[in-house]
Design a protein that fits this description.
CATH architecture of the largest domain: Alpha-Beta Barrel
CATH class of the largest domain: Alpha Beta
Oligomer: single chain
Bound molecules: iron/sulfur cluster
Largest sheet: 8 strands, parallel
Strand order of the largest sheet: 3-4-5-6-7-8-9-10
Distance between the termini: 46 Å
CATH topology of the largest domain: TIM Barrel
Amino acid sequence: MSKKEKSKESNREGLSRRRFLGGALASLAGAGLYGQDKVFGTASSLGSNGPSNDGELKIKEFRTLGRTGFKVSDIGLGSGETTDPALLEAVLDAGINYIDTAENYVRGQVESTIGSVLKKRNRKSIFISTKLGLGRKVTKESIIKRANKCLERLQTDYIDCLMIHMPSTVEALKTEEFHSAVAELKTEGKVRFCGLSNHGSQWQEVPETMEKVCLAAAEDGRFDVALFVYNFMQRDMGEKILKAYKEKNIGTTLMKTNPAATYNRMKAGIDKMKEEGKKIPDFYNKLMDRLKARVDQAEAFKKEQGLTSFDQLRDAAIKFVLSHPGVHSACPTIGNYSQLEAYVALSGKKLEPKEAKMLSAYKSTYGQFYCRHACGECESRCPRGVPVNTIMRYNHYFEAQGREKTAMVKYAALQANKADNCLNCSGNCERACPYGVPIQGLLALAHQTLSLA
Ligand code: SF4
Ligand code: SF4
């Protein structure tokens, strides 16, 4: 057996073992004895429900993806960083059959990983959406060339849905070069459907909201599938889009479904480092001082709600979006087996009244600390052109999704004024925020987090 095969086998064994141990570990979790499984990880191996006790880790519900007619798993794969073929095999084995990817995820490596696995599978049983960003100098030929490269990496004859990646304006949505390229690719049988993704605010241009762009896509008529933001704290825009898409029978897939950044993950990580006698970097100590008030609040919230783990909050957040009948597939980032188990266990589940109450309590306690994804309303008020919403999204990648490296690399590459500008500023943005987010402080904190300043 080759080294690669051995690693795949051991990963599978680990997964099976956890499935087997699911019931026992769930009891430990219930007793508060099973904690974070990674120092700064995102998900512990158990959600509130844990893996199913029948030992079968499988998707339970499939929904029709709008006019495509394809039955997709209610939990899809957000493949932003999926470069492990063994993990992807496990994802597909669990019944997830909707994959959201993009040309630029890990510089094409994610598509290549998908390709290496896809060629061994029944192609027709899997729906793949990939995305191309449109620069200023795009031509029909360049789009066709890039789509053909996607096909090469994906090792397939066709892409189910080719999406425009984050068109920041309605004008960008209607880019004729893209649409004529898609028309030609469809004629050749290389692309089946057309789509778009949007999480709002693009500070490079005059931004238009996610709502405006996504609703324009419904009116345009050429878009069959969309990927956008909807969660229990950012409801209004998402619900308007879901309503419009239902009327036009457009497929709906979601990102940023769990807006809860659980600050005590960081505290748990630091406590663990202390326990293990490791040196705590000064940076974390400084950061913890600033977060202390929020961590205390988090502890109080946890006690009040009888939570044994903040993973229960994540689970409720996913169940919230799955409970909306207009949602076809929620696509969280799945970066490891723990996350896979936790998300698949949520398939087919609906939000229970006590969980709805918990989300509502979380929103009242933390709503003011959440810079709404896809917002950006305050950005025009910043005299220094700081891309507020983009920076807070990178911070979310770091704190809530455990994608520390990606977040820091993205922040370092950001071609705009960074949040160190916020330290000596009068804070116009904060006064413009309709949700009362103390954004100046959060930006300063995000700068520290993302740059280890
Ligand atoms: S600080 Fe407020 S207005 Fe600004 S992007 Fe965040 S939520 Fe929107
Ligand atoms: S704090 Fe000042 S510099 Fe920072 S985003 Fe707000 S207005 Fe701009």
